[in-house]
Amino acid sequence: xxxxxxxxxLAIARTGQILAAARSLGLNHATVARRLTALETALGxxxxxxxxxxxxxxxxxxxxxxxxxTVESAIFAAxxxxxxxxxxxxxxxxxxxxxxxxxxxxxxxxxxxxxxxPDLTIQLVPVPRSFSLSRREADIAITxxxxxxxxxxxxxxxxxxxxxxxxxxxLDGHGTPSSIADLKDHQLVGYVEDLIFTPSLNFxxxxxxxWRSHFExxxxxxxxxxxxxxxxxxxxxxFIARQYPELIPVLPRATxxxxxxxxxxxxxxxxxxxxxxxxxxxxxxxxxNAIFAQALEGESEV
Length: 302
What we know:
The chain is α/β, with parallel strands linked by helices. Helices cover 38% and strands 22% of the residues. Strands 3, 4, 5, 6, 7, 8, 9, 10 and 11 form a nine-stranded mixed sheet that branches. A two-stranded antiparallel ribbon has the order 1-2. Strand 1 and strand 2 form a beta hairpin.
């Protein structure tokens, strides 16, 4: 068994398809299929159930995945220690982040780093989902909670607040609620509940137990745009909403506090490009700490 066979196995396990794995590796589809068959023959085990629409790991494949990732981690660590692949800041670093933080904060700033290091590619994936660092879906993840399992290293980035906002146009047409109970008479904008990927995002009922969204958007940026357009009252990230003068705080004493964490797999933190990008994000947040102030002036949490 050699590293190339393990690399092919990992690519199939992570993409779920031989064709997708071949594309990610820059290899021919038939070559990848043939190498997988050879690996299974050498091990005397069937690693995948091959279907027309993809590949599913067998029990033996699941066991192999754990060992393959250990080998992969050892290779990453060896490269980092020898410095042969990371003497300069080059290569690719993928950052997974919630869309609000990723689009509104990271996207305007990460270009500074690639401008300094032309051989560095940063892939920012700002989508409303969680990322598995152990499966190498991302090199760095921004999370809403400190991870409690896995070989992960976490640093707290910042606390931030969410609050009720509406557009001035909406308030002019529908009036301004004077109490939480008044929200029952208003159009409310919220998340698509069955697409919430972490309990930390299920915050509507922290504000109003009887919350019923009339318009549901599965991203923080989408909710902000809907509220800006007058669709109703929404619970928005204050550090985003403050950028738009047309967004007016509603019931400003009703706020929710959350935190962002920067998480890296312990096997990757020694790789210079990953460490440098993580440090850059950390320091950018610290320099801009004021925009993440826990609450608007005069606010208190519910």
